[in-house]
From TrEMBL:
Pfam family of the protein (one): Cg6151-P
Main location: membrane
GO BP: any one term: vesicle-mediated transport
Keyword Transcription regulation: no
Name recorded for this polypeptide: Calcium channel flower
KW Endoplasmic reticulum (keyword) present: no
Subcellular locations according to the entry: Endomembrane system
GO cellular component terms attached to this protein's record: endomembrane system; membrane
Similarity field: Belongs to the calcium channel flower family.
Transmembrane regions listed in the UniProt entry: 22-43, 64-95
Highest taxon of the lineage: Eukaryota
Annotated source species: Eurypyga helias
Amino acid sequence: ACAVAGLWNCVTINPLNIAAGVWMMLNAFVLFLCEAPFCCQFIEFANAVSARADKLRPWQKAAFYCGMAVFPVMLSLTLTTLFGNAIAFATGVLYGLSALGKKGDAISYARIHQQQKQMDEEKLTGALEGQA
């Protein structure tokens, strides 16, 4: 979607639209190299780029992908750039969510809340007994 929208964005005489379109096609190429190197078997360095991208932490990938997707939108704010970069930005958001970690279950949170409540009650009763 990013490459097609980038190509469509290049069919204009506005230099900012052309720059945004070229950047979007570059984004699509980088995403293919990092996320799906089997699609780029004809490129010799595809596996090396993919291996290096796999070593990055999820929050680093999130910042990289979201940054790549925001730049063309800042160059030329059109529907084509917004929709074209939505998938790249969504990829970054998903990596960001994975960096946050797993969601805890409700039972463990309820236990923690109950223990905190008991400790607060014990502190309050201890303070009241100390005053009396």
